[in-house]
Structures are given as structure tokens and as C-alpha cells.
User: Which sequence fits this backbone?
């Protein structure tokens, strides 16, 4: 069994525990959180683990082979440095750090650690999603001709400004960096040009919706729209999320409702429709890739690298900076925002809720 310590037992930490327990190759021996209620819940869910408040106890224990870092990104640089210095493999949440300089330092550290047989990975979960791999396969099969246009959109009534995750930046960084990473994943190229338009919804100080379009270095064009602004006060909440890859001859597209994802191909010789369970945050896949890497001594080829996360993070900060150079309107009021926060405080089933000791995350 591979021994694991989970640091940070909020929403994501609990998802990791569930995945480690289900995998069969891991034994979670430590869970750490600053918060007493989180520790109490951890003891209940993993009774044989040592539950601690101080992360240094996990990072210093040589019996722990892997750490899963699920705190916020301002805590991560020190955690990653310490874990690698102590000879541990690292699975971390994104972004890697709260400043881009530190993110690149950690990339360097991780790449050097791999030469010592230590693996690092980061939960860029969209790159482990079955529906995106199917789309890339379709796009590269010749059925759509040459890939020309990528259209990516993700809007939910999710995390409201000022609710948590402040260290991770406005929603286009906190969440949008996944979609920035996705444009690189599909095009197999880097960004060349971009123009971003954002909006300060509810007159919050930072943009909470952003749309960016531009070109990749291989001339494919893209647009990305992301915002946690989608009907926060609607009686019945929903979201919109899609990717369209449009080629010179056909296209493929994907949409999901977080339970089921549907991928469709309109190719020159085939029309295809695949409908399967969405797969959530794909943590089972990520920790499976790490287990295979550790047990075989060879990095799993699909396991997301720190470099891919730092690159997506870097570009999403630059796109946010670009939006600030243009007209940045503010619409709505802080009173509306307060009503949203109040509603979200009492929601038990919704989008991106903070866990507050809810076992059912
Ligand atoms: N990959 C994804 O799709 C995805 C989705 C959601 C969240 N995330 C990321 O996961 C991370 C955690 O998010 P979350 O929603 O679970 O947050 P959360 O606030 O629910 O949980 C964070 C927990 O960490 C604890 N904590 C913070 N610093 C600590 C420290 N130094 N030592 C011990 N405990 C500490 C807090 O008490 C809290 O319980 C964030 O970085 C977030 O961006 C990623």
C-alpha cells in the first residue's frame, strides 16, 4: 500500500479521501486541517488515520510516501518544497502558488525531483476528462478536416466574490485557468495573441466574467468565456458548459450537466454520439496515474505536469491583465452580491459550495 497524507480537508480534501479509499492501492495515514470541525470529520471518515492540525507533522514523517495538497495556493509553495526535500511524491491542487514566479520555481523543483525518482502532479482535471480525449481523437482523425476554431465556454452560479479562494484570484484565474489549459491541450500549441473583455459583475472590485479570443502559434483561433455569474439568484439554478472544435470540413462538440457528458461528431464520413457519466473532478484517474508511476518507476505519460498548470496559470493572469487595459464596466450592486452570498450560505445543494462540514461533497 502507498501511504498518503492529505493536507487540507475542505471540499477537495474530502474528494481525495473518497478516491484514495476506493482505489485500493493507497492507505491514508494522516489527515491535516487547521479547522477543528474538519479534523473531527476526518477522524470519523478515516478512523485509523492520525489527524493533525500542524502540516509539518505530515511533511516530516518519513513513513508518508505521497502528500495530497488541498489547502489554498498561498500555503502550497512551502508545502511542496518541504515534501520534496523529505523525499515525498506530490499530488497538488491547482494553482501551484499565489505568484507566478513561485509557480515557475516549483516547476523547476519538480522537474529536478523527478530525476531523483519523485513524481509531482497537479489536478488539471479537464485534461484527464474522457470527453476531451474523445474530442481530441475526433479532431485529429481527419473527420473534421483541419482544426481551425476552438470555442470554450463555462458559466455557472458558482463561487461568489469574497467567499473564499481569494489567494487564487478572480474566477478567470481560479477556474478559468482550466479552460486556458484546454485551448493548449486541443491545439497542441501555445497562445500567440489575445484580447480580453471582462466585466465587474455586481460592481465587485475584480472581474467575475471574462471572455478572451485570439490566436494560437499554429494559427488556430480560440474564444474562451468563463464566469461564476450564471443566474445566482434564479429560483432553479443551472449552468452552461460546452466546447466546440470546428474544422475546415466538420466539427465535434461537447456539453455536460455535471452528471452526463455528451460528445458529438459531425465528420465527413461519420456522425457519432457518445454519452457517458461526466466523471466529476477525475481524481480517481489522477491518483491512479500516480499509483502506476510509483509502482512502475516510470511517469505515467498522461499524468498532468506542474509545467502545464504553471503555463495555464501564467496565461490566465496575462489575459486578466489584458482585460484591465480595456473598458472594464461594472454592472449590478454589492447589495445583490450580499443577497447571493446569503443565499449560498444556506444552500445545501448547489454549485461550488464551500463544505462547512458537509460530508456529502
Ligand atoms: N482542480 C479543480 O477543479 C478544483 C476544484 C475546486 C477547488 N480546487 C482547488 O483546491 C484547493 C482547495 O479548495 P477547496 O474548495 O477544497 O477549499 P476549502 O476552503 O474547502 O478547503 C481548504 C481547507 O484547507 C485548510 N487549510 C488551509 N491552509 C491550511 C494549512 N496550512 N494547514 C492545514 N489546513 C489548512 C482549511 O482549513 C480548509 O479546510 C484550492 O486551491 C482550489 O483552487 C481545485
Assistant:
Amino acid at each position: 500500500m502507498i501511504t498518503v497524507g492529505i493536507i487540507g480537508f475542505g471540499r477537495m480534501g474530502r474528494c481525495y479521501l473518497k478516491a484514495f479509499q476506493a482505489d485500493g492501492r493507497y492507505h491514508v495515514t494522516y489527515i491535516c486541517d487547521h479547522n477543528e470541525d474538519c479534523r473531527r470529520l476526518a477522524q470519523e471518515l478515516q478512523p485509523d488515520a492520525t489527524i493533525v492540525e500542524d502540516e509539518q507533522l505530515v511533511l516530516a514523517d518519513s513513513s508518508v510516501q505521497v502528500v495530497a495538497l488541498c489547502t489554498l495556493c498561498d500555503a502550497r509553495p512551502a508545502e511542496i518544497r518541504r515534501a520534496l526535500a523529505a523525499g515525498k511524491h506530490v499530488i497538488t491542487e491547482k494553482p501551484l502558488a499565489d505568484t507566478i514566479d513561485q509557480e515557475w520555481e516549483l516547476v523547476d523543483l519538480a522537474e529536478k525531483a523527478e530525476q531523483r525518482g519523485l513524481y509531482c502532479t497537479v489536478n488539471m482535471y479537464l485534461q484527464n476528462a474522457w470527453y476531451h480525449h474523445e474530442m481530441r481523437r475526433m479532431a485529429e482523425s481527419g473527420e473534421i478536416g483541419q482544426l481551425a476554431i476552438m470555442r470554450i465556454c463555462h458559466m455557472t452560479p458558482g463561487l461568489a466574490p469574497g467567499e473564499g479562494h481569494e489567494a487564487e484570484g478572480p474566477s478567470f484565474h481560479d477556474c478559468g485557468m482550466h479552460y486556458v489549459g484546454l485551448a493548449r491541450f486541443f491545439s497542441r500549441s501555445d497562445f500567440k495573441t489575445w484580447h480580453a473583455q471582462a466585466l465587474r459583475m455586481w460592481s465587485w472590485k475584480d472581474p467575475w466574467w471574462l471572455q478572451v479570443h485570439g490566436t494560437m502559434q499554429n494559427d488556430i483561433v480560440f474564444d474562451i468565456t468563463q464566469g461564476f455569474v450564471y443566474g445566482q439568484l434564479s429560483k432553479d439554478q443551472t449552468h452552461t458548459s460546452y466546447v466546440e472544435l470546428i474544422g475546415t470540413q466538420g466539427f465535434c462538440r461537447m456539453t455536460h450537466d455535471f452528471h452526463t457528458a455528451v460528445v458529438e461528431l459531425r465528420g465527413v464520413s461519420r456522425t457519432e454520439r457518445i454519452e457517458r457519466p461526466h466523471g466529476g473532478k477525475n481524481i480517481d484517474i489522477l491518483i491512479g496515474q500516480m499509483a502506476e508511476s510509483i509502482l512502475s518507476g516510470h511517469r505515467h505519460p498522461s499524468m498532468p505536469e506542474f509545467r502545464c498548470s504553471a503555463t495555464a496559470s501564467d496565461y490566465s493572469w496575462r489575459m486578466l491583465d489584458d482585460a484591465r487595459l480595456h473598458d472594464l464596466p461594472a454592472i449590478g450592486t454589492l447589495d445583490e452580491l450580499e443577497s447571493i452570498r446569503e443565499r449560498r450560505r444556506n444552500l445545501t445543494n448547489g454549485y461550488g459550495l464551500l463544505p462547512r462540514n458537509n460530508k456529502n461533497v
